[in-house]
Here is the input.
Amino acid sequence: GAVVSQHPSRVICKSGTSVKIECRSLDFQATTMFWYRQFPKQSLMLMATSNEGSKATYEQGVEKDKFLINHASLTLSTLTVTSAHPEDSSFYICSAGPPSGTYNEQFFGPGTRLTVL
Amino acid sequence: DAKTTQPTSMDCAEGRAANLPCNHSTISGNEYVYWYRQIHSQGPQYIIHGLKNNETNEMASLIITEDRKSSTLILPHATLRDTAVYYCIVSGGNQFYFGTGTSLTVIP
Here is the structure.
């Protein structure tokens, strides 16, 4: 299957700082990518839809000024958590797809574990 | 919001078939059923998807009822590495809303 990578895999930061997470589709182009957040023992929650060349679409209740999304190319989307606080500590996962020839199949990155101290 | 209902947890003996049910009674005609699984602290892994016909691939089989209101994922010979949370997702586009999933434990 298609490969999606995320960087970094883990990040620890101090409260009040900003953290950038990268999501790359390695072997296909993705006009749309998605960002999810997952708290311990909970399911994935869709945060936003990242559209190449246009503004992201955020799910209800997700602060767009806090979670900045940029999708500058067909293989890269970034999520920046601004002024991070301990409650932003979570597992952030991106997905991309579909690769050409598949129907809406999403491929997920390995996730980024964010810890805010 | 998630449009699926799954049992919270299931156990399966190693080497036996694991049958994971999913209810999606409000599914629309253009919506597909997708199955993913998530092993602890990793991103979800695609398993299989279907519209109305039963599907099979190297990982699993997907059985969709004729009225499409429910489906069953079948892992034919479960191994310890199949222990994971399995998510059933219904979507007509490329936005996925995850439900709570089924935590499958394969027992030696």
User: Anything to note?
Assistant: The radius of gyration of chain A is 13 Å. Residues 54 and 71 of chain A are 8 Å apart (CA to CA).
